[in-house]
């Protein structure tokens, strides 16, 4: 470390900007798909999940970066797991204490943050090789990249699957079909949106739009 | 025909490069090639598979669907008349069904072709003719009372997600018509299954509109009294519009086979697979669906319609001859398996075909590999 870099130099900004689009963990690296399918039925759990991952990833990246020179490379995976698991338990307890309903909805998926490939992937690829400030920025960038995809998917799934957003009814109840007089016609929620396959299709559409906008992502023929 | 040619010749320069409407050339091209055999010559190496081009092939399928279409229209009126014990004549029944069914066809074609044209203009390629068939198949697989906006959404889903995402006609993995039906089935199950949707206006009059398979699945028992085997064969039963009559489907199948558009290997092996599976279940005989005679299984529901018009789709089926046998056989087996084991999905044919669509390239891969291996062995042993 000879030259001291500005805290927000262009290199550092790139650490945050890259995972948002050019190197998005979900749409480009296709990591963390399982949670993107499982908890995007509604907006609220998706947002809570995003914040949980933001906390775990950024803190774990910093911790691993701080102790990176002490970890024997043979047992680095175990050390990483211990750090992640500790943080996840903290998040889990916090949610249980202050956001019990959401915690119940997320159920096992909070615990499964431990196995979220994005976190392990960033620790291995970045935290182990870079300083704490850079690692922190990388953690923030990647979890925001993860979060926006999650929130966009959840937005469409909740809107069309249940007609609500964040628990509030958006599509007017008068538009709905009357269950005693089905033949009169009217709006019906799309049951397919609640099923996991539609989350996959929604992620696919995001990838499609992203690739046709961003010329850097088009492979050479 | 000369009149059309002259009109086309006059407006052609507007659409060609440099013309005012060059962006809309794909749309012009679609009309021109629809009316006349195109005069384009191949620019790179050519791959000739057939003497007729894709538009004429697709048109054969539409012609083969006409018997199903006409019978389906009449049957809509007949079922309505039968359920309400009204007093319509044969012709009135047909006209009733005609006016109920025409909106479905119109919505399917208008929405589907709009999406196709939009993609063609946007991407600057030709308009694909595949939708001529898909647009006819989709309404034929629907219950008559399906709300038109739901139909429109499922058509958009089928064309965009089922086809254009993969690169348009010829590139799709799943059968687009079945993608539309599967989408509706899972998105709006109350309008696609149950005992209220299969006869026109069953929701209003609360007369029963259950299909035979629906009755069997809900364990009401096998009521041979209300429908004779001949009724099922001729198609005087409730169901999706085009699927009921084996006679009409049979005429369509003959047209497809004579023109060489459909594969007899797939149709034959599908029926064999279905019959064997149903026969095995007969021997087991645990519940109503298992006890249903094997030959009945083949003539109720959409088994025959799916085998003739859906499974034979040349894009999504296996390409190798041995592969076609395996592909068809497994469709038959899975269709009966899903019917019998999952009462929530009384019609297994749709899911079976979609499943095997996914596996078709894999089947082809192994058939080709085994061919290569066999020949390699022969070469090595002679050396």
Would you kindly provide a written description of the structure presented here, covering whatever features stand out?
The complex is a heterodimer of chains A (221) and B (383). Chain A is mainly α. Chain A has a domain at 18-155. Chain A contains nine helices and two strands. In chain A, strands 1-2 form a two-stranded antiparallel sheet. The longest helix of chain A has 31 residues, at 132-162. Chain A is globular. Chain B folds into two domains: 2-35, no CATH class; 54-223 and 233-374. Chain B is built from 18 helices and no strands. Chain B has helices at residues 2-15, 25-35, 54-83, 90-123, 131-140, 148-160, 176-187, 189-192, 202-205, 212-217, 229-234, 246-258, 264-284, 288-291, 294-299, 303-310, 321-341, 349-382. The chains are: A mainly alpha (221), B mainly alpha (383). Chains A and B meet through helix 9 of A and helix 7 and helix 8 of B.
Key attributes of the depicted protein:
A: 221 residues; mainly alpha; 60% helix; B: 383 residues; 0% strand; globular
- Parts with pLDDT < 50 across at least 5 consecutive residues of chain B: none
Measured between the Cα atoms of the first and last residue of chain A, the distance is 40 Å
* Strands of chain B, total number: 0
Quaternary structure of the protein: heterodimer
Largest sheet of chain A: 2 strands, antiparallel
Overall mean pLDDT of chain A stands at 86
Compute the average pLDDT of chain B: 84
The outline of chain B comes out as globular
Protein structure class of chain B: mainly alpha
Describe this structure in a few short sentences.
By secondary structure, chain A is mainly α. Chain A contains 9 helices and 2 strands; from the N terminus they run H-H-H-H-H-H-H-H-E-E-H.
How are the SSEs placed, and which strands pair?
The complex is a heterodimer of chains A (221) and B (383).
Chain A: H1 10-17, H2 33-38, H3 43-66, H4 76-98, H5 100-106, H6 108-111, H7 117-127, H8 132-162, E1 164-165, E2 168-169, H9 196-213
Antiparallel strand pairs in A: 1-2
Chain B: H1 2-15, H2 25-35, H3 54-83, H4 90-123, H5 131-140, H6 148-160, H7 176-187, H8 189-192, H9 202-205, H10 212-217, H11 229-234, H12 246-258, H13 264-284, H14 288-291, H15 294-299, H16 303-310, H17 321-341, H18 349-382
Helix pairs in contact in B: 1-2, 3-4, 3-5, 3-12, 4-5, 4-6, 5-7, 6-7, 7-18, 12-16, 13-16, 13-17, 17-18
